Write the structure tokens for this entry.
Amino acid sequence: MKVEGVYTFPGSPQQVWDLLLDPESLRSCIPGVESLTETGTDQWDAVMKVGVAAIKGTYKGKVGIVDKEAPTNYTLQIEGSGGPGFVKGAAKIFLEPDGDNTRVRVDGDGQVGGMLAGVGQRMLPGVAKMLMNQFFECLVAKMGSSAGAGVAAASDGGAPAT
């Protein structure tokens, strides 16, 4: 399952990089996160509560940031399992200067299995995109408030990337 998106953040690539890798920002912006515990450099154990249609569950897993090339790109790896199934995936995150702003481009791929995949298969891409939008829009809002500027943040609004 492919997931793609483009988001505009106010600020320089280094400022956005720092925000994207800040554990407190991750903890407060990842949808459904109940806990995010650092286990090593750029490695966390996570507990999340997420639902697709009538299938809801608590997932325990790991989040890791690898292949870092500050402040231009990194890979976010996730894996988790719970009663309704499992999820595993990776997303390449690219930061590109855009005037006074920074464009963040996400190119991800994931697998979902178990009852979650069997029942919710057709809905999964839309749900994944919605969760990703919530995450990045929360981070954009944090960046905007920390910058103290009224810069409008834009995302692709859930439309597929081309």
Q: What stands out?
A: Confidence is low (pLDDT under 50) at residues 148-162. The first strand starts at residue 2 and ends at 10.
